Amino acid sequence: MQFFDTHAHVGLIYDDPIEQFRVIQQAKQAGVTRIVSINNSLHDFKKEYDILKSRPGIYHAVGVGPSEVTNPGKDWVKTIEESVSLPNVVAIGETGLDYFKQYGDKRSQIELFITQLELAQKFNLPVIIHNREAGKDIFEILKDRIPSKGAIFHCYSEDAKYAAMCLDAGLNVYFSFAGNLTYRNARNLHETVLNIPVDRMLIETESPFMIPAEFREKKRTMPAMLPSTARFLADMLEMELEPLAEQLWKNSCKIFNLPE
């Protein structure tokens, strides 16, 4: 049985490359054999890529999140365009909208997001979406601009009605659940997983954030903790863990265009 962590900020767990390698090894020992490493900012992408590029099973996304809207970097579009040609870069992201912390202004965030949707379409890649209290605008933008390879709502935070609205609109979207799915008060997420197709589900750790309830005493989330979220999801769906893990693996490979 193997697991695919579709979203982990490996560089935020530890700065030291040796510690990062240990994190990856521990994940593999736990059955987490593939990880998509998310850059903490575009400024850090090449450094983190170079550290992890030799590690088997590690893939990469490149993009500018809404927190970087006021400082995406000089020639940031060119940087992304050059980076997508690197081996094992499988997605644009994370990008999206965050109205909770009010980074910059809404118009600037939207422009940044749309440009990266266009880049994803240009380079035939899926996009990884950050959404915080911006679901309405993200939906309206995706209706016209979703890349043909699809989109992932990472660390899904909306409710079942929102997921249904996306699916009913025919959007090629996947819903990725992190450790907060295991929280008792996450009723919107629990309702969602019971009302969407299993073949649209992914799981992630969002390391080092969103610690699963089973590990609440820990200071940071590790990719090795991913099976805890998978077990919780299997229990909710009243499925055996192994067939669910197999389906989640297939979903992850499909959205990132990787061999199973």
Features:
260 residues, alpha/beta, 10 helices, 8 strands, globular
Explain this structure.
With 260 residues, this protein is α/β, with parallel strands linked by helices. Helices cover 41% and strands 17% of the residues. It is built from ten helices and eight strands. The chain has helices at residues 10-13, 17-29, 42-52, 76-83, 106-122, 135-145, 160-168, 187-193, 226-237, 241-255, and strands at 3-8, 32-38, 58-62, 89-98, 127-132, 151-153, 173-177, 201-203. It has an eight-stranded parallel sheet with strand order 1-2-3-4-5-6-7-8. The longest helix is centred in the middle third of the chain and has 17 residues, at 106-122. It is globular, with a radius of gyration of 17 Å. The model has no long low-confidence stretch (mean pLDDT 97).
